[in-house]
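Interim report, section 4.2 (structural modelling).
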Amino acid sequence: MGAFVAKVAATNVVTPVPMSCVAGSGVFQWNQSTRIVWTGSVIDRTIMEAAFADCALPVNLSPGAKAKKNVIRLERVDALPFPTTSDEAYRLSVTDRDICIQAVSDAGLYYGIRTLLQLADAEQGRVPATLVEDAPRFPYRGVMLDVSRHFRSKEFVKKQIDLMAAYKMNRLHLHLTDAAGWRLQIDRYPRLTELAAWRDAPVWKDWWEGTRHYCEQQDPKADGGYYTKADIKEILEHARRHCITVIPEIEMPSHSEEVLTAYPELSCTHEPYKQADFCVGNEKTFEFLENVLKEVIDLFPSQYIHIGGDEAGKASWKTCPLCQQRMKDEGLKDVNELQSYLIRRIEKFLNANGRDLLGWDEILEGGLAPNATVMSWRGVDGGLKAIRAGHHAIMTPGEFCYLDGYQDAPYSQPEAIGGYLPLEKVYGYDPIPASFTPEEASLLLGVQGNVWTEYIPTAEHLEYMLYPRAIALAEVGWSQPRNKSWESFRSRVVEKVLPDMRAKGYHPFDITKEIGNRKEALQPIEHLALGKKVTYLAPYWTNYPANGAETLTDGLRGGWNYNDRRWLGFVTDKRVDVVIDLEKETTIHSVGADFMQICGPDVWFPCKVVISASTDGEHYTTLTEIDQEVKKDDEVSFKNFGWKGETKARYVRYQSFPDPKRGGVHFVDEIVIQ
Ligand code: ACM
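Predicted structure of the assembly:
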């Protein structure tokens, strides 16, 4: 294997890196007389044309031609001469005489062609003799585009399909419905596109902080849009030619403010602009959802229909007479089981129509529907739980797959929803835990990058967030871990992927200008409290436990993201209230802690910090009280709240207080005592 890996590294050309790639001797010269031939009618010409669509070299498609020399032969075969269970696998052989691509499916041929186009020198037409035997690690390699928060044109969607397919991604998940706008023509329910697809502010943030109102399509203020059925058919045909399956997502039971304003009778209170959750007690809800899904099924050939399922508040169900009646009738013990009732019923409907249900990991709550596949986003636990129960799962954990977070130092980037997910971290993701059995691994279908667009108002910006991070996920999804190398990937991205993308009119992030993580996070810090015991007079927030009780004195400072397991969250009323025991009376000269502020996700600086010290643990002397005004801004900011002086103490108490007008969470990485 060592020699083989060296050859792969030597090629250092193809992305995602193939399973096996062995250099031969000689060069194939691709020129005006080169014929691309195949025999038999099973090869779909439109797919072959799509595979060569952006080829700069002469493309003479000559199916049936008998040429023996100077040919590129495409062969659909019954089996490949190497072990693989994937029907997307291919074998590409380049000699100085000819090129032959073999596969058991047109998708395999398509991928063989895409590899060939990466190997070929686009100017000189020289293709080095090579034998590639290749198959994907996972059958599902996806990207999710949120076209609700900011609508994107069908041309934009087709453009992203071209790029995804070039890097062998095969699933495009469209988040078509959400509070911010309904994006799909449904004949039976015209108000979804007359009203719920349009809002009075083009930029989501202005709208969300403003009226959150919809408007009629004819309204001069109306901004938004939707895909007609003809648009979708055009997208689907384009995707089919590029071997991509488009998976539609129709959100339920929550994230449905727009539906429940267009059709308020489907909510518990029957009032527009009041509810995000469908009324599950009302039969009309099921009539609506099934009628919508029927049109969706008629339009989209995808085996999976994504039904959302995330982040339901479920509050109105607790007091709604119809929901309460439903729970009684069905013997449901809580609102989680009521959600599960809806999901199971919808699954039955989809299964009866020959389709499978896919949903966010909240569909596990209250019991998973019998045949459902889970898309794991709140970490990987949901996916693991589903797999251990014998279900399929797709991994999209926020920590590695949410491409809406900052990809570099926030101060250098356009405003994002938060987070910090640099290219190297995406690339380093391995979806299969070491503890998995081969059987469990086979239930893990693959990975997907998600781009939520709350803070991404333009098409260019969306490409900037997608690329090159989506390409890292393409390699996570396709390549064998033994063949992966961050150094090789980064150099392929810099030398080839980014220049190619720019030449084709995409707008990727320039990884060569990357600043990197917060400098404080790069190395541990020594100080007097290092490793000392911390007593929590107010508890930390278990949703953001970082390294647990040791976080504040473990010497590890936080990076740009409060989710990096360095920042400890505090959400209960008093916020930070801790005592550090230095174990013996010690002369100290400073006490300080950094806080992070990012207002979008409700992370705020404190309005007051009190630091006090004690020699006996009972009587405390205040060292400092710091008051400051908490100001809202669009930045990710860091601020140290501390004291300097000289005193003797064994115990140090650190307290922070929230601005009552702001609430939110406090995040602290380390309490540094010098
Ligand atoms: C999600 O991010 N709410 C699936």
